[in-house]
Design goal:
Distance between the termini of chain B: 40 Å
CATH class of the largest domain in chain A: Alpha Beta
Oligomer: heterodimer
Number of helices of chain A: 17
Number of helices of chain B: 8
Helix content of chain B: 40-55%
Radius of gyration of chain B: 18 Å
Strand content of chain B: 5-15%
Number of domains of chain B: 2
Strand content of chain A: 5-15%
Helix content of chain A: 40-55%
Largest sheet of chain A: 5 strands, mixed
CATH topology of the largest domain in chain B: Glutaredoxin
CATH superfamily of the largest domain in chain A: NADH-ubiquinone oxidoreductase 51kDa subunit
Strand order of the largest sheet of chain A: 6-5-9-7-8
Shape of chain B: elongated
Order of helices and strands of chain A: HHHHEHHEHEHEHHEEHEEHHEHHHH
CATH superfamily of the largest domain in chain B: Glutaredoxin
Distance between the termini of chain A: 50 Å
Shape of chain A: globular
Order of helices and strands of chain B: HHHHHEHHEEEH
Radius of gyration of chain A: 22 Å
Number of strands of chain B: 4
Chain lengths: 412, 171
């Protein structure tokens, strides 16, 4: 097994304790950046590493950090630990087993954007993880890694957890901020973007847990070292959450650019005897479905190559669908999820997800009429680009791409 | 005197300290979690109390209780909620069949409660445990526990433990 960068607890189980993490050079990078007191250099290093957001959007992390205006203060950093996309279960493993590396990443991000307060927003189901993180934060305060005058500098920092209560939409950054402010988790109109008007109306960075967990090693070993992993445009490693019709589902940390075939067959143990891959959802339920072929299976999983297949890598939550499964059934499952999770703020999403659900379910047979597939596409078109956040658009992706690529599964 | 504030004064003080001055409203969700922890539901009285602490209207707080699925009102109160994930990844691994068998075994349909008022079985969206299907969470007594890689036998055993008054059952 090659050395892991994120799921390091699999090789060093002691990393879950502060002592264990410190022995593995933990918090040296944080201490170094605070002592050197050059936030711009930290942002530049992360920019240089090529690290991109692992929550789904793939936006360059260092660039995001550089957007915060210096003349509006204070700044905040929020770690997005709302992990709720069907097929995604990577942040949970990091927080359960390698919490200090994640927290150090968050702390370095706070320092880089000159924030003195950071939050971890977790989905409500993760209350035990939240309690564990609170204990880790208490330990960090006790040992002088959080608090005032850190390492005899003027820098001060504190962290807290904030627990959601069951709403997928709160993984969307502006809805997350609303929820953190004690309101309904509904998206905000943008602009202004959170980088200018975020938490409590102040400049805010929101990063995914996995993204932040990369940061301490980038600071410790340098951007050049990090670029050795992955492809030139999609640098680094990624945790691929593999699920569905595979023999060994689970989290696999691999360099970006690993092929679907290697993930599914070498690491995931392949499919049941006699079964073939029919479709792949590379980024969970909001994916555009990829129809399986030799070309698709040999495609490297990096941001550019998956986009080249007409889909998107997203959070790399790879759901494998085998050839025994009907894509109409898959579409029903996915639209049912989004109908339930639409927050109700924007009419096209609130109504559209219900309509699509009704159309898909109005026949109890396994087929729907050509008129209805046309209607589904029309409703989807009316939802796209017409809502405050991407949820409405996401809900249409798998349905429309399934109709287009697997018409035989829908036709009556 | 606000009895919620009185009972939980130390904890409420700690929660309020997590947010900057003037942003006390952020504690509304933590306070609702705190209220629900003891009884498994948020009562009207809790809502009035929290409204009093934060200086916002009780209607606004009630709308928050309604929006987030993990909060339950008195009307929705049940001892234990067995919440089975039936989203795509789990369903590909037999979660629908698992739910159906569990319902047949307990004699109720998804969304229903057993006649003794103890067990409710529900379908829920993704719980971030897609590699360990079938799985469910149990909500009861204000806490949530995960139960992964379940079989009908292990689930029935857990339900029996819950009936015997072992909160959370074996993990």
């Amino acid at each position: 097994m090659s050395e892991m960068l994120l799921l390091r607890h699999r090789q060093f189980p002691e990393i879950g304790t502060l002592d264990g993490y410190l022995k593995l050079s933990g918090f040296k990078p944080f201490k170094k950046v605070v002592s050197e007191n050059n936030p711009v250099a930290v942002i530049d290093e992360v920019k240089e590493s090529g690290l991109r957001g692992r929550g789904g959007a793939g936006f360059p992390t260092g660039v995001k950090w550089s957007f915060l205006p210096g003349d509006i203060t204070p700044h905040y950093v929020v770690a997005n630990a709302d992990e709720s996309e069907p097929g995604t279960f990577k942040d949970r493993e990091i927080m359960e087993s390698n919490p200090y590396q994640f927290l150090e990443g968050l702390m370095i991000a706070c320092f880089a954007v000159k924030a003195t307060l950071g939050y971890v927003y977790l989905r409500g189901e993760f209350w035990q993880i939240a309690e564990h993180l609170e204990q880790c934060m208490a330990e960090l305060r006790k040992q002088g890694y959080l608090g005032k005058k850190l390492f005899n500098t003027s820098y001060e920092l504190d962290l807290h957890t904030h627990l959601g209560a069951g709403a997928y939409i709160c993984g969307e950054e502006s809805a997350l901020l609303e929820s953190l402010e004690g309101r309904l988790g509904q998206p905000r109109l943008r602009p202004p973007y959170p980088a200018v008007f975020g938490l409590f109306g102040k400049p805010t960075v929101i990063n995914n847990v996995e993204t932040l967990t990369n940061v301490p090693l980038i600071i410790e070993k340098g951007a050049g070292w990090y670029q050795n992993y992955g492809t030139p445009k999609s640098t680094g490693v990624k945790i691929f959450s593999l699920s569905g019709n595979v023999n060994k589902p689970g989290n696999y940390e691999l360099p970006l650019g690993t092929t679907f075939r290697e993930l599914i067959y070498t690491h995931g143990g392949g499919l049941k005897p006699g079964r073939k891959v029919k479709a792949i959802l590379p980024g969970g339920a909001s994916s555009i479905v990829i129809k399986s072929s030799d070309k698709a299976l040999d495609t490297p999983m990096d941001y550019e190559s998956v986009a080249g297949l007409g889909s998107a890598l997203g959070s790399a939550s790879v759901i494998v669908v085998d050839d025994s499964v009907n894509m109409l059934w898959v579409s029903k499952k996915i639209i049912n999820f989004f109908r339930h999770e639409s927050c109700g703020k924007c009419t096209p999403c609130r109504e559209g997800t219900y309509w699509m659900d009704q159309i898909l379910n109005r026949t109890k047979t396994s087929k729907i009429s050509a008129k209805d597939t046309a209607l589904l596409k029309d409703v989807a078109l009316q939802m796209r680009g017409k809502c405050l956040c991407p949820l409405g658009e996401f809900s249409t992706m798998a349905v429309v791409s399934s109709i287009e690529q697997f018409p035989e599964d829908f036709r009556s | 005197m606000n009895d919620f504030l009185k009972i939980h004064s130390a904890e409420i003080k700690k929660l309020l300290a997590k947010y900057p001055k003037g942003q006390e409203r952020s504690t509304v969700m933590p306070l609702l979690h705190l209220a629900q922890r003891g009884t498994g539901c948020v009562t009207r009285h809790d809502i009035e109390n929290i409204a009093g602490i934060l200086g916002i209207s009780s209607t606004e707080i009630a709308s928050i209780v309604g929006f987030y699925t993990l909060y339950h009102t008195e009307e929705e109160k049940t001892q234990y909620r067995i919440q089975v994930c039936t989203d795509l990844a789990c369903a590909l691994c037999g979660a629908d069949r698992f739910l159906e068998e569990l319902c047949n075994k307990t004699g109720i349909k998804p969304g229903e409660t057993t006649p003794d008022g103890l067990i409710t079985i529900e379908e829920v969206p993704c719980l971030a445990g897609c590699d360990k299907a079938p799985l469910f969470q149990v909500q009861g007594g204000g806490v949530i526990s995960y139960h992964e890689k379940q079989t009908l036998e292990s689930a029935v055993r857990l339900i029996n433990q819950l009936r015997d008054g072992m909160p959370g059952g074996e993990q």
